[in-house]
Amino acid sequence: MINLIICGAPGCGKGTQSDLIVRKYNLTHISTGDLLRKEIAANTELGKVAYQYISKGQLVPDQMIIDILANKLNSLQNSNTNGIILDGFPRTLAQAEALEKLFSERNTQTDILLDLQVDEDELIARLLKRGKTSGRSDDNLETIKKRLDVYYNQTKPVSDYYQSLGKYAGIYGMGTIDEIFGRISNTIDAKL
Ligand code: AMP
Prior knowledge:
This protein is α/β, with parallel strands linked by helices. The protein has a single domain, classed as Rossmann fold. The chain contains eight helices and five strands. It has helices spanning 14-25, 32-41, 45-54, 62-75, 93-105, 120-134, 141-164, 177-191, and strands at residues 2-8, 28-31, 83-87, 112-117, 168-172. Strands 2-3-1-4-5 form a five-stranded parallel beta sheet, sandwiched between helices. Helix 1 (14-25) crosses helix 8 (177-191), helix 2 crosses helix 3 and helix 4 (62-75) runs parallel beside helix 5 (93-105). It is globular. Bound molecules: adenosine monophosphate. Adenosine monophosphate binds at residues 10, 32-33, 36, 53-54, 57-60, 65, 88-89, 91, 95, 138, 147. Adenosine monophosphate binds next to helix 2 and helix 3.
């Protein structure tokens, strides 16, 4: 099993790079944002609660997203996946600790946290551009600024946690998609 985490500020390219990583390393992609958006689209009770947070640029409560992730991990138990890439999870220290507990109960652990580092001006420009076509309720300037605040305040400690475990890899996230993917591949290949 290879377990990767890809993180970074909103607009850093997590989703795009995850797709490339999944193809090259034959992993299962788990995006908690996508899982929540599916609940919203299906108008489930969970989706209705999640929408209240997502549309304001806030994180959904830890226990809610940890339960969703635990269910997803359970559903993969008998699949023959090479491993997983987590995109958008963990986003708080409590989620990171819960994740390592869920992994250790399954006799596995995180191998590498890939932290995509992109300048703030570039993040805002990318998200505003995406907002023109994504239809996402959170890709507008006001919510983007809120999401960046949330990221710097709540999600940065996750990087520090994995740094303390010796599993952190900062990746320079500026340049072309291929250039960035090259840096990511080199990092994964060197660590595995
Ligand atoms: P993303 O697609 O990863 O940018 O996530 C979009 C939104 O979904 C975030 O701004 C949060 O409101 C919510 N979300 C996604 N993943 C998480 C998570 N791990 N913890 C809390 N909220 C999340």
